[in-house]
Amino acid sequence: MGKLNNKVALITGGNSGIGLATAELFAGEGAKVAITGRDENTLKDAANQIGNETLAIKADVLNLASLDDAFREVESKIGKIDVLIVNAGIFKGAPLTDFSEALFDEIVDINFKGTFFTVQKALPYLNDGASIVITGSAAAEVGVENASVYSASKAAVRALARNFSADLLSRKIRVNVLSPGHVETPIHGRLGLSPEQVKGLREELASGVPIKRVGTAEEMAKGYLFLASDESSFMLGTEIVVDGGWSQL
Ligand code: NAD
Q1: pLDDT tens readout for residues 206-223
Q2: What value does the mean pLDDT take over residues 229-248?
Q3: What are the residue ranges of helices labelled H in the chain?
Q4: Which among 18, 25, 150, 214 is the best mutation to test ligand 1's pocket, defined by most ligand atoms within 8 Å of the CB?
């Protein structure tokens, strides 16, 4: 018997990287899985890879109406949501002196505002007793060159989890955060670098991690499974950091 048998789980950004690995693990644990993302082709490919009749829905967290539509579709096709993984996000950075208002807005709108409204819009479609897991980042705990706005956006969602948990106590909905450290996913390939530069970046990142490697999406997925399932029933408003010791040692 799976740890999420017959639970309905929605994973935003479930068509890539950490979200995709989490969707695959959840399907293997018996969940009825829905994923959202921005790209129709990768959504289709991801749904095939996950299997188990995964529901794939195009929705952009910058478009709040598309979130309403996505949640309504999940409820009508596979039922009310028991597990919501708020994972859609971007990483971008720039030197402080050159940081544009447009870049500031893009990061904050997707990572912070997008997280806030994903949870707010999901509320009518969640079962009481649901588990919400928000993707933070270990970067919120350390100072990293060029990454001030990204790190602050992730510190902001860490704060949301505490406050949402307080807001949702009467419905017994738990809200926690999974904060990855450096993880090998397509996120690094979206920085406009060549494949060699991406490889170099990952090696540089790995050298700064105490256990001298970056993490895998599958290692993150195990943390989401714990927070999503009843195994973490006494945890709310808190955080699991999965970062090879990067933010702690
Ligand atoms: P990824 O680029 O592989 O996946 C990001 C996902 O977010 C994609 O599915 C994408 O479609 C979705 N997304 C982005 N903008 C969106 C939007 N406007 N609307 C809807 N969906 C959108 O990257 P990943 O590494 O799997 O990242 C997943 C999460 O983990 C992000 O929140 C990221 O900040 C966080 N994170 C990643 C790392 C890392 O090193 N990879 C470290 C810490 C935190």
Answers
A1: 999 999 999 999 999 999
A2: 98
A3: 17-28, 40-50, 64-78, 101-107, 114-122, 148-167, 195-207, 217-228
A4: 18
State the pLDDT at residue 88. 98
- 144: tokens are 């990293």
| C-alpha 47 to ligand 1 mean position (Å) | 17
Catalytically active residues, by annotation:
150
Q: Is the pLDDT of residue 1 over 90?
A: no
Q: Which amino acid is at 239?
A: E
Name the nearest CA neighbour of 90 among 66, 50, 62: 62
pLDDT bin (cut points 50, 70, 90) of residue 52 is: confident
Question: How many separate domains does the chain show?
Answer: 1
Quote the mean pLDDT of the chain: 97
Residue 127 lies in a domain: yes
Tally of CB atoms within 10 A around 103: 15
Residue 117 lies in a domain: yes
We report the CATH number of the domain holding residue 29 as 3.40.50.720
Ligand 1 mean position, distance from CA 170 (Å): 31
Candidate of 10, 15, 22, 91 to mutate for ligand 1, largest count of ligand atoms within 8 Å of Cβ = 91
Domain for residue 147, yes or no?
yes
Range of the domain at 202: 8-242
- Tell me how long the chain is: 249
Task: Please indicate, yes or no, if residue 3 is contained in any of the structural domains.
Answer: no
